[in-house]
Write a structure and sequence with these properties.
The structure holds two protein chains of two kinds. Chain A is of the alpha/beta class. In chain A, strand 7 (162-165), helix 7 (185-198) and strand 8 (202-205) form a beta-alpha-beta unit. The chains are: A alpha/beta, B alpha/beta.
C-alpha cells in the first residue's frame, strides 16, 4: 500500500501517520510506504523496488483521483509485474483531504475509503486484454462519389473485398463534373472509375439503396435494394461516403434563381469545363458577372447555420478562370468574409485580385429583372452605402447541406447527427472500435472539398482494413452475460450505447423452450456497465467491476 | 364507438360465459384456453389451462377471489417459437401484468387472444374459502347479487383486499376483447367489446355480428367506481407516506420482514430466472460473517432484508401494476401495497408512464432520451 502525499498537498486535513498506522493492522496489508509523487520517475522506481522486494500480489494506491494519472500508475504496476486490474487507486485527495476540515472525521472517512479499496482489490481478478478476430472481412461502402471510389480502391489495394452501393446510375458523384486545377475528371476520376469497375473483387451496385442494416462490428447484415431486386451482403465494417446536397437556391426567392441568367456555381462549372461561358438568355459572353457568396450558408433564417467552407476558394478559382478565358468580362465577388481553410488560400486570393477580380464586402439584398435588364441591390460595407448594380449573369455560390438520406442512414447505423444535420459527430473524436466499425468519409460528415474527401477516404480505408486483417485487442473491462440466467428481456440490448449486445436464439436443454438471450460482442463492448445496471437479475457481470468486488467495497464503506 | 356483441343470458351469467368459452374451443377457434374455473370442491376459483372443450365446466371470472396473479401462465405457455393459439381470460390487474411482461419479452402475444373482464374486486383467500365453505348456493352468483344491492367496499361484512379497494383499473379496454358487465343487467345480457382487429376477427369467426354502440350505463358506473377507489387509494398513500416519512419510520415498517421472499415469488412482474437476492453474490462465508460481526459489532439476522426490499422496489417500481399479491402473501403483513402505490405513483408520474395501460408505450428504462430528469 502506497500513501502518496502529492508533493505534500495531501495530509493537510487527514492525519496521514494515524491513517497509515490504522490500516497497517489489517491482515491483507503486506507493507505500507509513504511517497511524495508516484506519478514521477522517482515515485515509479520506488513502486517497482518495493513490490519486487515483497510477495505482495495486489496494490492499493492511496492518493489522488485515478482520473489524472491512472495510466502512469498502471504502467508502473505493469513494470512491477502486477496486472493493472489488481491495483486500486483510493482517492483521498478530492474525495476527502481537500474537502473536509475536521481532522478526526476526515481521518476516519479516509480509513473507510481505504478499507473499501482493500476489500475491492482483494476480490479483483487479473484480466488480460483479449484478442478478438472479426468474422467478416469485407467492407460496405455507401456512396460512389470521390470519397467512396477512393475508399474502395484503397481497400482493394489491401486485398479487401468491397461492396459499393450507389443511388445514381453512375459513379463519380459531384466531383465527376467538377474541374479543379489539381484534379480533372479525365486525369483522376475517370481512370479511378475504370479501375474500380474492372476489379473483380469490387461488387458495385448502381441505382441501389441500402434499406436495412442489422448486426454489429465484424458482422453486419445489410439489405440493399438493387436493380436486380433485394440483395443481402454480409460485411465486417461500413464506410459511409454518402456525400452532401447542394443548397437549393429557390429557397431564397429574392435571389431569383428561377431567372435564366441566375445560375449556381455548379452550372457555371459545366460552362467552364466545356469552355462555353455565355449568358443563357442571349447566348453571348457575359460583360458583367457577379458571384454571390454564402447562398444558404451562415443564414439562420432562410438556409443553414453552418459555413460551407469550400465556396470561397471555389468562387475565387472560378472567377480567376473566367478572367483567363474571357479577360474583358468584369467579375465581382460579393462576400461577407472570405474563409479559406486550406494552405495557399491567401496567395490564391491575391492572384485573383491581380487578374482583376473585384471583391465587394456586403450582403446582396435582392436581384431584380426590370425592362429586360438584370440588376442587383447590394450593400457595400467599405463604401457604407447601398448600391444598385447592373449585371448580365449572376452566379450563386450555394453551400453544401446534409444529403436527403442522411437521417435515414444515421438511424440505420444508430449514429447521431451533428447540429447541422451531418454525420460528423462521431468520426474524429472516437476510435473506430467505439464507432462499431463505421467510418464516415467525404461530405457526409460536413462540407469539404475533393482533396479532403480523398484524404478522409484513405484514412477510413486504412483504419478499417487494419482492424479487419489483424483483429483487435478488446478492452480488459468488459461485460459477460451468462445465457443460462439471461431472461431475454432486452433491457440491456436497448440500453447499450455501443450496440455491443445482440440477441441470439437458444433452446433450453431441459424444456426445449426457444428464447432470445443477450450476447456481448467483445469487439464493441467498452465496459461502461449500462447492461449490469439495467438487469434486475444481475446477469451481466462487468469483468473488473464484478458484483463481488463492488459489494465487498460497499460493505467496508457502510 | 365500441364494436359490441350482445350475449343473451339464459340460465345465469356464468353459464353463458362457460358456453362461450366451450364453443371457442369446440369450434377450433383456439388450441388452448387459459380461464379461471371453480374448483370441484367449490371453495375457490383458480386459473386453468384447458385443452379439451369437455373440460370447460365452470368458467368463472367473477369469483371474489384471486389466488394468484396468473399473468405468468403466459410466460410459461409461450416462447419465441410459439405457434399454438391461446385464448386467455384475465382480470384487469392480471392483464396489465401481461402487457408489462410482453414488453419485457417474457410473453409472446403473437398467437394469443386476450380477454378481460370488468372486475369488482376480491376478498382475502381465507375469507373467501370460509364463505364458500358455508354457502349453500353458488357463492359468486350470491355475492354478485349482494354487491348489486349493497355497493362494493365490503362483501358479506368482509373488507375487500386493500389492492382491490384502491384499484383505479377495475376495467381494461385495451385487451383484444373485454367482457362488459359493469352497470349492466347481468341477468339479462353480457356485452363483448372487440377492442383490436384480433378481437374482431375472433368474434366474427365465431359467427357473431358486431354492432357499433357506446352503452352509457357502463361509463357512469365506471366513473363512480373509479372515483371511490381513487379516494381510498389517496388515503392509503397518505397513511403510508406518513409512516415512512423518515428512515426510522421506513425501518419500522419493514421490521417484520422474515426474508421469506414470498413477495418476490408471487409478484407477476418479477421475471428473473434467479433472483439477485437469492444468488451467490449475497452469500457470505463463515469467516465473512464473523469478520463482519467483529468489525461492525453486530449484524442483524437474517441479513439484507432492507437491501432486498429497496432492490425489489428499484427493479419493479416502473412496472408495478398494484395487484397487491405481495402484501397478501406477506406473513408479517408489511403494508407493501401502500408502499408500492405511493412510490409507484411518484415514479410513474416522473416518467409519464402507467404500467400495463397499453402495449404501445415503451418501458421507461428501455427508452433513451438525451435530455431527461434535469431537475431530479
Amino acid at each position: 500500500m502506497f500513501f502518496c502525499t502529492c508533493e505534500g498537498t495531501i495530509g493537510l486535513n487527514i492525519d496521514m501517520n494515524e491513517l497509515e498506522k490504522r490500516v497497517k493492522k489489517r491482515p491483507e496489508v503486506a507493507f505500507t510506504v509513504k511517497v511524495g509523487n508516484l506519478c514521477k520517475r522517482e515515485g515509479q522506481d520506488l513502486l517497482k523496488n518495493e513490490i519486487s522486494k515483497s510477495d505482495a500480489d495486489r496494490i492499493v494506491i492511496v492518493g489522488c483521483t485515478p482520473r489524472t494519472y491512472e495510466e502512469i500508475i498502471d504502467k508502473g504496476a505493469l513494470e512491477a509485474g502486477i496486472n493493472k486490474h489488481l491495483l486500486e487507486q483510493v482517492n483521498i485527495r478530492e474525495h476527502c483531504d481537500w474537502i473536509h476540515s475536521d481532522k478526526k472525521s476526515a481521518t476516519d472517512k479516509a480509513e473507510f475509503l481505504v478499507g473499501g479499496g482493500i476489500a475491492r482489490v482483494a476480490n479483483a481478478l487479473s484480466i488480460e486484454d483479449k484478442e478478438v478476430v472479426l468474422p467478416n472481412k469485407e467492407v460496405l461502402i455507401i456512396g460512389g462519389g470521390v470519397a467512396g471510389i477512393t475508399a474502395s480502391l484503397e481497400l482493394l489495394k489491401r486485398g479487401v473485398i468491397i461492396h459499393l452501393v450507389e443511388r445514381n446510375a453512375e459513379l463519380g458523384g459531384r466531383a465527376y463534373s467538377l474541374d479543379l486545377e489539381r484534379l480533372r475528371e479525365d486525369e483522376i476520376i475517370l481512370p479511378a472509375i475504370d479501375e474500380l469497375t474492372l476489379n473483380e473483387k469490387a461488387d458495385i451496385m448502381l441505382n441501389s439503396e441500402v434499406v436495412e442494416i442489422q448486426g454489429t462490428f465484424g458482422d453486419y447484415k445489410v439489405t440493399v435494394n438493387t436493380e436486380d431486386g433485394q440483395k443481402e451482403v454480409v460485411v465486417g465494417g461500413i464506410i459511409i461516403a454518402s456525400g452532401s446536397n447542394l443548397f437549393d437556391a429557390n429557397r431564397i426567392p429574392e435571389y431569383k434563381y428561377d431567372d435564366e441568367d441566375v445560375i449556381d456555381f455548379y452550372e457555371l462549372e459545366k460552362m467552364l469545363v466545356y469552355k462555353n461561358l455565355k449568358v443563357p438568355s442571349t447566348g453571348e459572353k457575359p460583360k458583367r458577372l457577379n458571384f454571390i457568396q454564402c447562398v444558404g450558408s451562415r443564414d439562420e433564417n432562410k438556409g443553414n447555420t453552418h459555413c460551407s467552407l469550400v465556396c470561397c476558394t471555389y468562387a475565387i478559382k472560378q472567377a480567376a478562370r473566367i478572367k483567363t478565358l474571357s479577360p474583358d468580362t468584369e467579375v465581382y465577388i460579393h462576400y461577407m468574409d472570405l474563409r479559406g481553410p486550406d494552405n495557399g488560400f491567401e496567395e490564391y486570393f491575391l492572384g485573383a485580385q491581380k487578374k482583376g477580380v473585384i471583391f465587394i464586402r456586403g450582403r446582396v439584398a435582392e436581384i431584380l429583372r426590370e425592362n429586360g435588364n438584370l440588376r442587383m441591390r447590394t450593400e457595400h460595407i467599405e463604401l457604407g452605402e447601398v448600391m444598385d448594380f447592373p449585371t448580365d449573369l449572376v452566379v450563386l455560390s450555394v453551400g453544401q447541406e446534409a444529403s436527403s438520406g442522411t437521417k435515414k442512414l444515421a438511424d440505420m447505423v444508430h449514429l447521431p447527427l451533428d447540429v447541422d444535420g451531418f454525420l460528423g459527430y462521431y468520426n474524429d473524436r472516437f476510435d473506430i472500435v467505439d464507432r462499431r466499425g463505421i467510418s464516415i468519409a467525404g461530405c457526409a460528415q460536413g462540407p469539404r472539398g475533393v482533396a479532403r474527401s480523398i484524404s478522409d477516404a484513405k484514412k477510413a480505408a486504412s483504419e478499417i482494413a487494419g482492424i479487419l486483417k489483424n483483429g483487435l485487442k478488446a478492452k480488459g473491462v468488459h461485460s459477460v452475460i451468462d445465457e443460462n440466467r439471461c431472461m431475454g428481456c432486452k433491457l440491456c440490448e436497448q440500453l447499450c450505447p455501443y450496440e455491443a449486445i445482440t440477441m441470439i436464439t437458444v433452446k433450453d436443454y431441459i424444456t426445449d423452450e426457444v428464447k432470445m438471450v443477450s450476447c456481448v460482442n467483445l469487439a464493441v463492448c467498452q465496459g461502461c456497465g449500462a447492461c449490469a445496471m439495467a438487469c434486475p437479475g444481475g446477469v451481466p457481470q462487468l469483468i473488473g467491476f464484478t458484483n463481488r468486488e463492488i459489494m465487498a467495497q460497499i460493505d467496508e464503506l457502510i | 364507438m365500441a364494436k359490441i356483441v350482445r350475449l343473451d343470458v339464459k340460465k345465469d351469467v356464468l353459464a353463458t360465459l362457460n358456453d362461450f368459452f366451450r364453443n371457442l374451443l369446440k369450434n377450433n377457434m383456439s388450441d388452448a384456453l387459459v380461464v379461471p374455473q371453480n374448483l370441484p370442491s367449490g371453495v375457490s376459483t383458480v386459473q386453468t389451462i384447458v385443452g379439451d372443450p369437455e373440460s370447460v365446466i365452470s368458467v368463472n371470472p367473477f369469483a371474489f377471489v384471486l389466488p394468484a396473479n396468473s399473468a405468468d401462465i403466459l410466460v410459461k405457455t409461450t416462447d419465441d417459437a410459439s405457434k399454438q393459439r391461446i385464448v386467455a381470460l384475465f382480470r384487469p390487474c392480471e392483464m396489465r401484468a401481461v402487457f408489462e411482461l410482453a414488453k419485457l419479452h417474457q410473453i409472446n402475444l403473437e398467437n394469443v387472444t386476450l380477454i378481460s373482464v370488468d372486475c369488482l374486486g376480491t376478498l382475502p383467500i381465507s375469507d373467501y374459502t370460509e364463505l364458500a365453505g358455508k354457502s349453500e348456493e353458488d357463492l359468486t352468483l350470491k355475492l354478485l347479487k349482494e354487491v348489486e344491492n349493497n355497493g362494493i367496499s365490503t362483501i358479506s361484512g368482509r373488507d375487500l383486499r386493500p389492492a382491490c379497494l384502491t384499484c383505479e383499473f377495475p376495467v381494461i379496454d385495451t385487451a383484444d376483447i373485454s367482457i362488459w358487465t359493469l352497470g349492466l343487467n347481468k341477468d339479462k345480457e353480457i356485452l363483448l367489446s372487440a377492442n383490436t382487429p384480433k378481437g374482431e376477427v375472433l368474434l366474427s369467426n365465431m359467427g357473431f355480428e358486431l354492432t357499433e354502440e357506446d352503452p352509457s350505463e357502463r361509463k357512469t358506473a365506471l366513473e363512480a367506481l373509479i372515483k371511490a377507489r381513487e379516494e381510498s387509494r389517496d388515503k392509503l398513500i397518505q397513511g403510508v407516506k406518513e409512516a415512512v416519512a423518515d428512515i426510522p419510520g421506513f425501518m419500522r415498517v419493514l421490521a417484520g420482514c422474515i426474508n421469506c421472499h414470498n413477495c418476490m415469488k408471487v409478484c407477476p412482474i418479477c421475471y428473473c430466472k434467479e433472483c439477485f437476492f437469492e444468488s451467490d453474490v449475497l452469500k457470505s462465508s463463515p469467516k465473512q460473517y464473523l469478520d463482519k460481526a467483529g468489525k461492525k459489532g453486530v449484524i442483524r439476522m437474517p441479513m439484507d432484508t432492507v437491501l432486498y426490499h429497496i432492490g425489489r422496489m428499484n427493479h419493479m417500481i416502473t412496472s408495478c401494476v398494484a395487484c397487491g399479491q405481495c402484501e397478501s402473501a406477506c406473513p408479517s403483513k408489511i403494508p407493501l401495497l401502500g408502499i408500492y402505490l405511493a412510490l409507484g405513483k411518484d415514479v410513474q408520474t416522473v416518467f409519464n408512464y402507467l404500467p400495463g395501460k397499453s402495449l404501445d408505450e415503451d418501458l421507461p428504462l428501455a427508452t433513451f432520451k438525451e435530455e431527461e430528469l434535469s431537475e431530479v
